[in-house]
Design a protein that fits this description.
154 residues; 4% strand; two-stranded antiparallel ribbon; mainly alpha
């Protein structure tokens, strides 16, 4: 029997990435770090409680049932993607703190743009830097793979 943890809906992942791209771009273009804080919260909550991720919920409860986005289920461990999302959420949290609290606007917006760029790269060319880092940490013995296929899915 296959582990349900190894099932991943790539459409949900792509919608999540697209939403991150749109909102982080809007935050930067509108010079509104509160949008950054919103995306950071969505990403961090979705990392800690995957079923509570707002963008995933929009996909699962609205877009998928209406047939606006079709599911694309693949055999893949979600752990690297959760790690990448958490890392992005931390970057955006620091972006908000730097821009709003510490007054380090350039550094704060740089972190926002890094998340924007990496989410865009993942969305368009399917390269996830956070996933790559996750697998490197496994190789270094800092994490244990959650699946037998863990190191294959780079």
């Amino acid at each position: 029997m296959k582990n349900i943890q190894n099932k991943l809906d790539r459409s949900a992942l792509k919608f999540n990435q697209g939403a991150i791209v749109i909102f982080t771009a809007l935050a930067f273009l509108l010079n509104n770090s509160w949008i950054t804080a919103f995306v950071a919260a969505v990403m961090l909550i979705g990392t800690i409680y995957p079923k509570a991720g707002l963008f995933k919920l929009i996909y699962l409860r609205i877009l998928k049932p209406l047939g606006l986005i079709k599911p694309d289920i693949v055999e893949e461990d979600n752990s690297p993607h959760q790690f990448a999302q958490g890392l992005g959420g931390v970057f955006l949290l620091f972006s908000f703190l730097f821009t709003n609290i510490l007054g380090l606007l350039s550094l704060g917006w740089l972190l926002d743009i890094i998340v924007l760029a990496l989410a865009f790269i993942n969305l368009t060319v399917n390269f996830c830097l956070g996933c790559f880092i996750y697998f490197q940490l496994i190789k270094l013995g800092m994490f244990k793979s959650t699946s037998a296929a863990g190191e294959r899915n780079v």
